[in-house]
Request: fold
Amino acid sequence: MTKRRSYTPRIPAMVCPHCLTRSIACDSFEIDRLPRDVRYICQNAKCGHVIVARLFIIRIVRPSMIPEPAIRLPYGQWRSKSANDDNHLPANDDHRVPANDDHPPDAAEVAIPRLIP
Reply:
């Protein structure tokens, strides 16, 4: 008796650029240690589009316990930040003053209003 899976197996897929239906990876060919060509077949029988996509290894998220010295890749995070994410301060935080007054501003910087009797 075979054991039934309680989950759907994850098959690498892309969207067909013509009919926007799921295209499933059916095989791949190793070009080198880093790139491979993957053949995808559109699941829409009326479309029948077959495409080849190139899959690259681009960065290391967690280093290997048995590294190959010939493989040199940059380290990075799982998802890289967006190209337009420059960590700008919000518009209201141009001049930040510490909340705990560790470094209070100089008297020349702060205008103290005088009460006129």
